Structure formats: C-alpha cells, structure tokens
Amino acid sequence: MQRRKASVNVEVKQVIGTLCRLLTATGLDAVPTPETFRRAKFGGGLEVEGQFWQLLTNILQRTGVISFEAGGQPRGDSEHRKAVAAGLRQTGCHADWTYGRQTGEEEEGKSFSGRDLLLALGWLLATGTLEALLTQRVQQLDKLLLTPLPVVSLVSSELQFDSSSLRRLQWLVGCLRHQRRILLSMLEERTRKLHTICSASLSPTASSSSNQSSTALKEDCDRLRQLCDLLEAYLNWKPVENVFWTWMDSVMDCHQTPSFAKESLHTPSVCQHNSQRPEKCEDMLMRLPTAQTCRVRLQGKGPVRDHSYTAENFQGSVEPSDILPASQASQLLLQTEALLLQKRDRLRLENRLRLQEVIGELEGLVLIPP
Amino acid sequence: MSVVTLQLGQCGNQVGQELYDVICSDAQDAQRRTTHTTVSCERFFHQNKHGDLVARAVLIDMEPKVIKQSMKKAADSGRWRYGDDSHFSQKQGSGNNWANGFCVHGPRHIEVVEELVRREVERCDRLAGFMTMMSVAGGTGSGVGTYVTQSLRDAYSKSFILNHLTWPYGTGEVIVQNYNSVLTLAHLYQLSDAILVHENDTVHRICSQLLNIKHISFSDVNRVIAHQLGSVLQPALTADSHGVYSRNPLGELVSSLACHPEYKLLSVCTIPQMPSSSIAYSTFSWPGLLKHLRQMLISNSKMEDGIDWQMRPPSASERTRSLTGASFNTSLANLLILRGKDVYSAEAGGFEDPALYTSWLSPETAFTRWNSPVPFNKYEKSATLVSNSQALLKPLDNMVRKAWNMFASRAYIHQYIRFGISEEDFLDSFTSVEQVISSYTQLCN
C-alpha cells in the first residue's frame, strides 16, 4: 500500500495526460482531463460521471460493441446507460452496477460512483480495447496499409512426399515469392509518395504552384501527420503504462478501504459477480481435482466467498485483512489455469493414444484427420 | 504502375513499335471512359514537357536502321513517340550469332544500356516490371537480350521480368536459329519470371487464313502479335483489384500462370481475329467465343479455323494410362481475359473443368479470369487466353532436335567457340531445355 501511495504523485498526472492524448489521437471526442480522472478515483460527482459515461459510450461505439439507431441519439439517459452497461457486460466487465435491473432501477444513476466508471474504463483498456482503437484509426489514416488477405492453404496437414504434392508445394512457394515481390514494390511506391509529400510540405512555394495536386497532397500530408501523432502518442504511452496501472490498483484499493466504503455504502464492488455465480463457480471448481488445491490455498488467505466483495462485506462485518488483494488472486487463478491446461493436455494425449489403439484394432478402416 | 519495355534487335524493335501503337490507339479511342485510358497511359507512357505521350521503352540494337524506322513511325503517328535519347545502337550487328551478342556486345555496352533503363525506371511512380521483346533467331535480340535480362535480374531483383520471344519460322530464316533459340531459352529460363512466346508460323497462318492478307509482310505479322499482346496488357479488372483496374499487370500475370520454376512458357490465343473491314458486319456472342476458345485450347490450335472438334478431355482412367491422350493439350494454368460488351454475363465454367488441368493443381488455382467492360482494338467483344500448357511442346521439341542434329556434326560450333561459348555450355543448354520438355511432357500424367 505504501508503494502504491508513493507512486500516486505528479508523475501519475502526466501519465494520465499521456493516455488522454493517446485516446484523443485515436479519434475519440471529449476525453476527460487528468484532473477528472483524479476526481473519479474519489467518487467524483455527476459532472465527472457524465464525462466518463460519454467516454465509455464513444469507446464502445467505436469498437462496435454497441450501436445506436441511425438518429445517433438514444431515447434517454437511462436507455443510453443501459446500452453502455450491456456493452460492458459483453466485453466481460460484470460489475454489479451493470446489472441495472437486479440492483433496482430506482437506484440507477446513484448506485455507483465515477470510480466504477473509471474501473470499467480500466477494464476496457486492459482487455485490449486501446489497441483495437489504435488499429482502427491507423487503418483509417493509412490508405496504403495492407490488410492481410485470408490465404486458403491447399496443403493438407498430412505431409505426403509424392511428386505431385512436391510440385504443388513448389507452385505454392513460387506463388508466395511473387506475392512478396508485389508487396515490396508497393512499399517502394509508398516510400516514394511519402518522400514527395514531405518534400512538397517543406517547400511552400512548390505546393502553391499546382493547386489541384496540392489539395490532395495537403490532405495526404494532414493524414500522415495525424498518423505520426497517433503512433507517437502510443509510443509515449507504452513505457509509462505501468504507472497508470499501479494507480488503477490504488483505485481498486479505494473500493476496498472501509473509509471509502462509507462513501459508497450501497455500492456493490466492481468485481462483484452475480451472487449465485461464485457458488456455481465453486461447484464447478470442486469437481476439478486441481482446482481443489487452489481452493484450499485461496481459503488459506481467506474464505472463497469473501473473494467476491459483496455489499454486505463493506458494511463492516469483514476485516480488510480477510480480503485477498486482486493481484494475488489473479496470480493464483493464473497458476490454476496453467495447472488445468497441463492436465487437459495430458488427458488429450491419453485420449489420442487410446483412440489410436482402437483404430489400430479396426482393420480396413481409413480415417482421415480433419 | 508502369511497365518498362526493352526492345532488342530488329524483331523486338518492330514488334515493340506495333505494340505501343495498338495500345495508344486503343487507349485514345473516342468515347472512352477516362479511368481506362489513364491507367493504360500511366502503364505504358509518360508525358514530356510538351504534353506528348512518350513510350516507357528503351530501344537497343546493334544496327541503327530499325531503331530509326521505329522512332520515325512512332513520331509520324502523331499520337505518341519514343524518348529522344532512350535508344542505343551501334554500327555493326551481331551477325546472327548468339555468342557474339551475349559474350561481346552485351558486356561491352551494358553500362550504357543500364543507364538508359535506370532513367526510364526513375520516371515510374511504381515499377510493375520489365518486358523485354526480342526474337530468338538472330544474334542481337537473343544474345544481347539474354545478357541484358541477366543484368536486369541482378539490378532489379524484386521486379517482374516478362520476356516476350518471337520464335522463327520452322523452315528457317537463319541457319543457326535453332542454336540461338536453345541458348536463349536455356539462359532465360533461369532469369525470367515468365516467357511469352509467339511463333511466326502460327501468326503467319492467322494473317493468311483469318485476316485474308495476300502478301504477308513482317509488319502484318507484328501487328497480329501486337494485337494479342495488347489484349493481355491493357488494363483489366482482376480478382485482387477490388473493382479498380489492376495496377500490377505483370505481377498478377506471372502469379496466376507461372509460379512453378519448371513451367514458364506461355502461349497466347485471341478470338475473334478478322480483317478490319469485316468487323463492322459481324456479331459475336460470349458463349460462342468461349466455346471456340476452349476447343482451341484443348486441341492446341491457335486459330478458330481448323479446330479439331473431336478432341475431348481424357477421362480419369485414360489419364492414368497416359500417352494415348498425347495430342490433348493439358494445361498447367490458364488466364482468360475478356474485354467488351456484357463481359460480366460471360460464363467461363468450361475452363474450370479439372480434366483440362494437370492432376496436381486444382482448377481454382489454375484458372484465372480478368474482365474489362471496355472493348479492345475495335472488337466489340474479344477473348484472349494466356496459357501455360503443352502447346509449345512440339515446336520446342523440333527446335531442340534440329539443333542437336547440327551439334552432333559440330556444324558452326567454331563460330560460337570463337566468342567464348564452349561445347560444355552448349551441352548445359541442351540439358536445361530437355528438362523443360520433360517437365511439360509429364504434365498430362
């Protein structure tokens, strides 16, 4: 906690500034200021919430998770927010407040603070939305960008070394080599055009001489500048990203600290799953032998149920020490996942061997693997 | 995207001039859509400061006469011209000797030629590749042409090189034409991406039987070659071009037809071809044209006259027995280019029959189709088939056989040894060409 507090300093503000510039460069309108982010951490107010609602809406719309009808304007704020909540659930963010109906409609708009929205934004960024936005924007700006076409592979997974397969392979290799050369020549053309644009933009007299081509050049130049700004913003963001995530950790901590819990007394936690879910999940885990060890280890840190911070937990009955920090929990889950994957692979191998034995016993039957 | 053409030797310079003429008159034909014209002009011409269309070509010959004629003809047309200083010639020819061209003239003048090519290349926004045009019979086209192709391959390793070769009359124009042909083909096979061949014999027959020309001159023959080449090279909509004219004609041509290093020989046939006076009175339907073209392909006739209508694709059982279906022309890959009215209504399913192709390539890979709604060279509808098939097997085999017979008695070999081509080099070349013949023979297995 000390470490986290120490990292929340002026630097954070700059880092959030970097993020804001990057978000703006990806073409999002109305990105909140770093100060708004800070206020959101401490709950913020209606104004802060409004800005984050807007940002989340824009992001979800741009990534195609939600879309509003042709009119563009949702029927009302509540409809609008419901759509955003549904969009968030689609992206895997199952915070309680996103289940508006279950938490009570009348509480909507009050049942959460700006911090929930900030955490939701964090979730979106952590799940690769930023990169998706970036890619989308780069594709818009870069007209010469090559999008890989799906290539139909004609080579079957079963390698055959007869002469016709070899010839087919030689043909395909030749085809690839030709494609490579076509791509290289496209790159060359692109470089040449860039050079033309750059030299045209450097000499204003040259660009003013030819009107028609200069407008096209200016547009191209403008697009390229935007592209450069975008990529630069991303490059600036990448090395300092960690600072932001440490700060987001501290936002999470605010949720868990009782002093803040008072503020959001009726606020269910953001990583709260539906109340039946942990039980179901627990049942499922119980059936898996590997998971049981994990469960035991989780219990060692505190009861598994406590891992889902329900609203009651915040009402004072549970000591903060019982709460497993998100980072540790995620680590445990990752370990469990790895173990389960290992187990699955082993089982698959066993199954395959068994299948091969069975096949071996069946004479005259030829099975072609998919 | 632009194609730089290298015209080499007498034949190359004459065919090249006809090609540019056909392309330019076709592109500037009245009532044309502008995109087609723009793309075509960008592909083959640049504009000089007076606004004239200047061919993206380099003219090379060891004698000045033909280059002068070609440049004059171009300038006289009033539509286009050659660049004033994009030609290179010498006083003395190569004496129909491949070795003289390849070992002496080529190395001696390559720097000047490279400089001319570099200047043309720098004029292109984007270089689609090179097309060299030459005959294989003489000395300059074949010998210098091969040497220049080699230097192009070194200098522009990423660019596509399409060699257009004119094969001599079987009866013989030059006594050593078969030597020259074998040496050229053997070397080009290693350097070129694809070799597009026109046989003088075939074109001559087209002139006499389809175009009803009484006294056939080289100019008539060249015009037919130019027409066929033009119908391949003019802008078309390809599967990869997403509704705009393909910008990489050579790349797409080569990618669809010649991906395998052992199979690079392409032949062309076009339908319809008729005297220009008859065009106005003729109507054509796509099904009729394509039915003819398909039969021309499988029976290996380059003309719509005298097609063997009995020829049928061999069935699977016949194919395994092989050799019985020897006269059936098996294809490795085909490219069908349709130009003209209602082009999208044309049904080309007949070319997707697996029986037409070798067993190891699926028809989906082997068959490609390009379309252009713009008619070509006054024909309301025209279809051109570029085929990588066994079509050239027979003339190639004849050529090698005759050359080998001469070589067996060491006839004229000393003329080649004099310029630095040893008997070993000859044997190597024979081996490579025999390999090509063997590869194409195995296509029907």
Task: List its salient traits.
heterodimer, A: 370 residues, mainly alpha, 2 domains, flat, B: 445 residues, alpha/beta, Rossmann fold, 60s Ribosomal Protein L30, Chain: A, Helix Hairpins, 3 domains, ten-stranded mixed beta sheet, three-stranded mixed beta sheet, 16 helices, globular
Description:
The complex is a heterodimer of chains A (370) and B (445). By secondary structure, chain A is mostly helical. Chain A folds into two domains: 2-140 and 230-275, no CATH class; 279-361, no CATH class. Helix content of chain A is 71%, strand content 0%. Chain A is flat, with a radius of gyration of 27 Å. Chain A starts with a helix and ends in a 9-residue tail after the last helix. Chain B is α/β, with parallel strands linked by helices and 445 residues long. Chain B has three domains: 2-267, Rossmann fold, CATH 3.40.50; 270-392, 60s Ribosomal Protein L30, Chain: A, CATH 3.30.1330; 394-444, Orthogonal Bundle (Helix Hairpins), CATH 1.10.287. In chain B, strands 6-4-1-7-8-9-10-13-11-12 form a ten-stranded mixed sheet, with helices on both faces. A three-stranded mixed sheet of chain B has the order 2-3-5. In chain B, strand 11, helix 13 (363-366) and strand 12 (367-372) form a beta-alpha-beta unit. Chain B is globular, with a radius of gyration of 21 Å. In chain B, 53% of the residues are buried. At the A-B interface, helix 9 of A face helix 9 of B.
Helix percent of chain A reads: over 70%
Task: Kindly report the greatest chain-chain contact and the residue count on each side.
Answer: A-B, 23 and 24 residues
**Number of separate helices of chain B:** 16
Count of alpha/pi helices of chain A: 17
β-strand percent of chain B reads 15-25%
Output mean pLDDT of chain B: 90
Total DSSP E strands of chain B: 13
What secondary-structure arrangement, pairings included, does this model have?
The complex is a heterodimer of chains A (370) and B (445).
Chain A: H1 2-7, H2 10-25, H3 34-41, H4 46-62, H5 77-90, H6 100-103, H7 114-126, H8 129-141, H9 163-202, H10 204-209, H11 211-256, H12 258-263, H13 276-287, H14 289-301, H15 304-307, H16 311-317, H17 326-361
Chain B: E1 2-8, H1 9-27, H2 34-44, E2 45-47, E3 53-55, E4 57-61, H3 64-77, E5 80-81, E6 87-89, H4 98-122, E7 127-135, H5 140-155, E8 160-167, H6 177-191, E9 194-199, H7 200-210, H8 218-233, H9 249-257, E10 265-271, H10 276-279, H11 286-298, H12 316-321, E11 331-340, H13 363-366, E12 367-372, E13 381-389, H14 393-408, H15 413-417, H16 423-441
Parallel strand pairs in B: 1-4, 1-7, 3-5, 4-6, 7-8, 8-9, 9-10, 11-12
Antiparallel strand pairs in B: 2-3, 10-13, 11-13
Helix pairs in contact in B: 1-2, 1-3, 1-5, 1-8, 4-5, 5-6, 6-14, 6-16, 7-8, 14-16
